[in-house]
Amino acid sequence: MPRNHQSRDARPWMKANGHPKLASVIIPTYNRAGMIGDALRSVVAQDYRPLEIIVIDDGSSDDTAAVVHNFAREIETSHDDLQMRYIAQPNAGVGAARNHGLIEANGQYIQFLDSDDVLHPNKLRMHIDCLSLHPDCDYAFSDMGDFDNDALPHNWDVVPPKEQVLPSVACYANSEILTMVGVYRRSLCNRIGPWAEDIQLGEDEHYSLRVLSATDYIVYLPGDLCAHRHHRRGRLSDPIRNREAARSAVDLCNRLVGAVRPYHRENQPAFVSRMEKSYTDAIIDCLAVGESASARLGIYQCSRLRISIARRARLILFGFFALLPRDCFNSFWKGWLGLRKLLSKWV
Hints:
Blueprint lengths: L18 E11 L6 H9 L6 E8 L5 H12 L6 E8 L4 H11 L2 E6 L5 E2 L3 H11 L5 E10 L15 E4 L14 E4 H7 L10 H12 L2 E14 L11 H19 L8 H21 L2 H12 L5 H13 L4 H19 L3
């Protein structure tokens, strides 16, 4: 999908203040005529009001616009406390679409939703209640379920009534804090700034880590309050593949470290532990596909963290394989995994 690389700094940013109690649901979409109706119905079914829905169409070429307009006409006379807007933009990527939605949003609370996923009917109310009870927290989140294509969820997990206030640093290793699982105070979104528009792999992970770094405490409400659809059609946030994907994984690791540095979190043990694993996975992927230069960059950047001696020794080994053909590494890695599997049977 082509990308619009217009400078973020050249465009306006969201207004600081929103309408009290209003929740804004931002739905980026691209060629989702067959699925976006489910996402929209899950928002209309929310037991929270007032509410606005903002659909940002990132250059769809199918009937997405017609589906959204028909849906808007259906609800405009029956929901006085719900507003809906459809905004088309030239194809620029999911980060640009979410930023456009933030600029257009008027709500005090922000909910992101991909156009192929759905929300639990109580999600907004339960999360906003949590934020109201804990004014020192700017972000409330729950768990995420999943469903296969058209089999929409009916039996959602029962959500316990008691929320938990957690230090944000305790969630650095939680890879499930992504996009739609939470509700943000507008002030937090405004404070951390726009989504990165030039990240092709892991833009939601990057944004979520900035959220965790910019606040000390967050609220967790156990249970599935949203669901991710599994299907084989393309996604706005689809990762690129193979060699370019391996390079992008190292770049994402570097961007994650850069994201927490303004908040002086790069030496937090929980963050270092997360990045040790992320760098290791990215380096292995690079070595497996012959991206030696990116592997060496990942090795160098990882070595700058306060990592363990054992991890440094592994980096030295990876550095050795980065000097050899990829077949050498792949043969070694296949043998190592086989040995670990064999040893696990004896332990």
